[in-house]
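haha ok so turns out i had the wrong file open the whole time. this is the CORRECT one, sorry everyone. sequence first:
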Amino acid sequence: MADSNDDAMLRQFLLGLAEGLNAAQESVDRIGERLAEIAAAYDRRDIQFVVLPTMIIVDSGAGQGGRVGLRTAVNPQFRLDQIAALYELVALARAGSVDPERGIERLNQIGAMRPRHRWQVRVLGHAILTTGLALLLTPTWQGLLVAFGLGAVLGLAKLIRSPTLQLVFPVVAAFVSAITVFLLSEVVPIGNPLELLIAPLVTFLPGSALTTATMELAAGQMIAGASRLITGLVQLALLSFGILAAGTVVGVGAWSYEVLGGSGDQLPWWTAAAGVLLIAVGDLLHFSAPGRAFGWVLLALVVAYFGQAIGELIAGATVSGFVGALAMTPVVLWISDLRRGVPSQLTFLPAFWLLVPGAAGVAGLTEAFGTESGVGDFVTALTSIMAIALGVLIGTALYRVVHRGAEELANFHIELPSADDEAAEPPFWARLVPGSRDSFWTRRPKPRRRPDGTRAALEQSTAEPERIEADADPASAGRPDGESAREMRDRDS
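then structure:
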């Protein structure tokens, strides 16, 4: 009974870890790798896993003693401090140094963790994060003030934790931001309205979904990768719908959705460095990231920024995101593999937001739906989004090849069934009963010799004793199959 309880506890622990890693937006292939390493640390290499974004299956044991654990749920997203605590537990589990029951208790504690910072600090962090992105998009004093105010309002609204509200909040946030920017653009020189209104919506951009989707596609996880990619594109479309709805209410004409030249008091070019720093600070405060992650986040932001700048000089603005993502992705994965590094989720999202995939995508989709030149704008929007996604995809694939080499080559192999699946040996008392299988009282024929002198064992058959007797008779050689010795003598007479 103790073994059964231990097996059930380990299976529940693995299910909880997989559910937590899903909530941390980890790719399903890396979740499977982590679970396999943890199972091996507990001397359970026979456990099999099936991991999808909304379903986890753990098959423990073999043969008739095997058990299957199933978990189906749509997990909420973890904050960065929860992600950091989760990966500390994963590191202990990979070493086999945590009891499964204690691990389940720790998982529940991580799920109930309170943010590291108070709500005032988190609201301020969201406003700083919005301001930093606005510095990269529309570097004007007026635009910065509007972005800071909208970032504070939306950061305050995000404190309301309601599953129902989370479903519609992105559309509501886009609607409120668009109405505010459209009305202010008539009286205040805030710069490009479409780009500025994206800054407050930075935390609603599907950067996590698109990033994880491309990593899963690079690993061959087509079901999970394709579903996440479609989810991200749908979220971009919902944000675009909120902007168009606001434009309809305010009375914005079709021409007003087109990207116009910037206006207002432009800030110097070097303020972009301040924008990168503000994004790192805002991410640290709003998402309650651990302090040790700040340096790594800043490094990923700098690499992404310079990669995007070089790409824009070489190939233009549309392909600049591809170069930035291609440069940033190996650095982020390298940081996650370091002993004193941080999980990739802590550095991927800020760098992804700096590349502004959502800004180009939402603005392009809004122009496509709201203007008459929809086909060209729609193609441009999808190109900018897919350029960054392809950069992450290729960067992930290159890092895997360089880091792991040929060990990822898959071989087609099917395991034989275990001994538990074979027919069980009958007990000793059953062998004492005459007529039963493998009974002591069953007569077994002696093996006969083949023409070449080798001995061949006869297969026992209690159902056909006459045929066995005939086969044992040397005189029966050459008779038709199934003809007994008595029938042969009658026919010869």
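Confidence is low (pLDDT under 50) at residues 453-482.
again sry for the mixup
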